[in-house]
Design goal:
single chain, about 350 residues, mainly alpha, two-stranded antiparallel ribbon
Amino acid sequence: MAENPPFDPFAQSFTLVTGDGAAINITVPELDAFILYSVQISINYAAQLGASLIFLIVLLLLTKPDKRKSPIFIINSVALLLNVLRMLLQCLYFTGPFSETYAYFSVDYSRVTGSDYANQVAITVLNWMLLVCVEFSLLLQVRVVCITVLDFYKRIIYVLSACIGGIAIAFRLALCIENSKYILSLKSQFSLEWLASATNITTSISICWFCLVFVIKLGFAMRQRKKLNVGSYGPMQIIFIMGCQTLIIPAVFSIIEYFVPLPSMDSNVLTLVTIFLPLSSLWASASVDNRRQLPPQPQLGGKMIGSGGTAGPLLDDKFLNGPLSPSATTTTETNQSDTPETHVRDLNLDLEAQKNG
């Protein structure tokens, strides 16, 4: 006669009775998994809420009044505010009737109020609105860094950027509509998993495309600055560093979602981009202000007196009016589009565009 397996108190079950008298058998591991999921995702959303709120306050306090009317500042501020509202509503979900134990296991949402449904629909709409702000902010950043690119290549970059960003926005809008229908009716004509996955993929591709353009252009700018012996960690280097972060970190989070069983990892992608974009502008603006406060270096015979006696652009970010060397005053057959003065002019255009963007 076979012996009964030993009793495992951690795997025991209990019964829930529904309103119509049906019995639902629930095990302790299932209940633990539900509680653990709620705690993990609540921590994730709360961390994003706190980071977005703090940085929104920092952005409003540190941005100069004359810069608060710029399109980039307005879009970045609106994006942070939308993300704060989005994370707040996400946290409210796990403190409302949707996350009650009986409602979850019995799928009985009869006590869920209309305002609770409205909050969930608002989350899907805020996700779409936030992506629109992020895409427009990235478009403006591309316009800034490509200000010195030839018109032909500039148009190609703009068209491709608009198409890639538009596709991501379209997929997010489709998911917003279908997800809202599902929330209100708890029924769907087809599985939303593929649409959600396609939305995450197109969003990641969009972010990577924008930031790839961003990083490549500024990489060339850094190379030119190095040739001119410009000091490190200027505004261009700062934008380059933050561009790498905006490119790599959100992409990593979007990939981790498919391999690491952590709840709602995709929500971190938009939050990270929303925070990094204004952070780069603040850092670069502070660097420009510090450079303007430095006294101008003396000039002798048209040359800059800098470290090692090498020539370089003025610290007040103005165009060089005089020649870089005595030989520059002579007539030569060199290509004027590749002279040091041209590089300096392009670098200053990049810098002024970043400040005024």
